[in-house]
Amino acid sequence: MAMSFFDQFMSPVYLGIPLMALALTLPWILFPTPSARWLNNRVLTLQGWFINRFTQQLLLPLNPGGHKWAALLASLMVFLISLNMLGLLPYTFTPTTQLSLNMGLAVPLWLATVIIGMRNQPTHALGHLLPEGTPPLLIPVLIIIETISLFIRPLALGVRLTANLTAGHLLIQLIATAAFVLLPLMPTVAILTAAVLFLLTLLEVAVAMIQAYVFVLLLSLYLQENV
After folding, report:
1. Which of 25, 33, 106, 207 could form a disulfide with 157 if both were Cys (CB 3.0 to 4.6 A apart)?
2. CA 107, CA 154: separation in Å to the nearest integer?
3. What span, in angstroms and rounded, lies between the C-alpha atoms of 19 and 16?
């Protein structure tokens, strides 16, 4: 049976049971939990250093009111990086290539930032819909445009993450298929293609980390506007 390149993005099913929940809970099992000892091992020390540094960088542009989101945003960052990186392993499934999952993460968090802005400072939150000094004739048009751009934000968050990971996985599979086909025909070209595949894999590792960071960074910027 001919397999499509997009079959790798189908949610895995075993005995009629979707394994999406297993793919989402597995990353949490892989992280070591802190112990009650005074001294930790190297893995725990590195993990704690990374989370502390990331949290410090994330909270720099935020007001003190937004610091309550530190644990949520740091956890989301580690979770997305884990899902993206584990999806690069052979015979694995990347849940973040599903637009439904990414929208399920983006919409509630974006909506929470909007609700916080409407509750704490409604005048300032609504002021973003109409810049100061706008000519009277442009006021209705600008309000409509800013409202549309506000509701497009969660869609942009989900589509950006999905599109970047999907494109990288498809490109890796295409180049790997080309190298496999060219190996008996043109070994030299196949070796060069394999070298390109190795470099592309390194690039995809960077993309997996950067896209998780961009997702959380944009959420923090949306939060800054409403805090």
Report:
1. 106
2. 5
3. 9
How many whole angstroms separate alpha carbon 226 and alpha carbon 115? 8
**Which of these, 108, 76, 83, 112, lies nearest to 98 by C-alpha position?**
83
CB 106 within 8 A of CB 154: yes
Q: Tell me which residue of 172, 157, 175 sits closest to 205, measured CA to CA.
A: 172
Question: What burial class does residue 176 get, using C-beta atoms within 10 Å of its C-beta: 0-12 exposed, 13-18 middle, 19+ buried?
Answer: middle
C-alpha 198/C-alpha 204 separation (Å) is: 10
pTM of the model: 0.84
pLDDT mean for each 10 residues of the chain (227 residues): 62 76 79 76 84 85 82 89 86 84 92 88 76 76 85 91 89 88 86 90 92 91 84
Domain boundaries, the chain: 7-226
Rounded to whole angstroms, the Cα distance separating 129 from 143 reads 5
Place of tokens 């819909």: 129
Give me the count of residues in the chain.
227
C-alpha span between 78 and 72 (Å, rounded) = 10
| 84 and 212 Cβ atoms separated by less than 8 Å | yes
Strand-pairing partners, residue 14, are 17
Report how far apart, in Å, the C-alpha atoms of 198 and of each of 9, 152, 178 are: 21, 36, 13
